[in-house]
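Protein in question kept in full:
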Amino acid sequence: MSKIIGDTGCPRCIENGGDRTENHLMMFEDGGAYCNRCGYTTNWKEQKIPVKERKELTDDELRELLDEFTSCTVRAFSDRGISEQTVQRFGCRVGVHPSDRTKIGNYLLPFHNRGDDGTYSLTGYKVGIPKDQRKPDLPKYFNRGRVKDAVLFGEELLPNQPFKKLFITESPMDALALYEAIKASNKGTKWADLEPNVVALPHGTGSAVDSINRSAKKLKLAEEIILVFDNDKAGHEAVEKVKALIPTVKAVQLPMKDCNDMLLAGKGKELAKLAMWGAEAVKVDGVVDISEIEDDIVKKPVWGSPYPWPTLTQLTYGIRNEVIGFAGGVGCGKTAFRDQMIANDLLDENQTIGLFPLEETAGRAGKAIIGKMKHLLLHKPDVEYDEEEIRNEVKKHAGKLKLYNHKGVKDWEDIKKAIRHMVVVEGCTKIYFDNMTALVAHLNSSEANDMLNTIMSDVSSMTHELGFAFIYFAHLNPPKTGPSHERGGKVLESQLTGSRAMIKWSNYIIGLERNKDPDLPDYERNTTTVVLLKDREFGNVGKFRVFYNAETGDLVEMFQ
């Protein structure tokens, strides 16, 4: 799409006493110029029209612009097969053609924002140029007003209480077409007075996930969400992305490119039937022929991202899209290992990381991670540091570390949604989860085991579906015999809280053994033995030692 680079006064509007703000004529980088009121066109490069710098509209300018648009004519989009009733319901308008008042000069499609109180306000319009008036140097559509954070087109019309079906199309024009088709199909039936709930992506498939996520609160009211995207590559890819965000969505496979094409081809009844009854659950997994997975078979395995400790990287071939568990006694340094790994990811791997610190605040966890990067124990009151230097370090990693601020609420269904959001929307490649045991601390042993099995099963499925690594930390049950884990007792797989679920669903389980006996020398108390307890992929075993530097907080592998 050609980009708007400025605006100026429309000579035709000014001649007729309009365009007092002198901003109706939109100027595009390809040279085209188009009046979003009267439809006047010219080429500003050929006419050598000076380009005014395009500035953000003031509140008064926005109000005046919206007043002008809302005063435009309500008329059927006859060339698109859309009735005046449908146009009126969605708050659409038309600009009248400058030379033929019976023709449409442009389509005006309203955009809304939603306030914190749930109310909607008109903030702009998408302006569409009819097919018979398009020129190579002009786009099909362009936006006027403040439309960046617009919600789904038509969302303001949705009920405020639970409802059955919600249809989401790729474009506003397709939403109008689908609404038109369903209303016509229901005419003369018991559903004639039913208002179909149809919305559209405000900015196309490229921002489908962002747009749907922005409207998540409203979408939760729909019992069934049905995607009616274009039958092309971009539409199919967008369906898969939305499926990753909302696994329960259904999708319609159109026989033509889009809803409006079907309506114009006289296939409105078929379109309505497909949307109402022909949607199918989007299937990611299923039966495949071996020929379909040929690429997976011949693809050469690659190393995963490294751990901060070379021996563990060698034993496991790095961190891949798998479930990895770290287990140790209370106070044996699990969180320090977590923070070292995250710091390593952010500094050396340039990844986007998600962290669920369920036993501390997000602020406390963030402080510890930044401290690892600066080799400072920032949480200790007697440690001196330069605040500006720490702020600059935080800014360096903005957008790369997402933290879950649980605020005391630890519900798995909410957390599962947050994991999906971090991976799908925020682009996280790894999720660190500390601590798994915190989710079941309020349950008895039997209930905890059942719950952990559900959680681990969900986690394993998500890592395969979405492609990310899930690294969790877990407490241990006390040994039945011998010294406690805090006094150097050996870590066994069977000692994990909910061990059956952990063993069943984890690709790797890594034990942390440490003796905190205060009578021991500092050197021994600050040494942890890392033991690879389970390796589902290769069956490797091994162990190595890591030393904790009490001055810097660094965990460094010890080599013999």
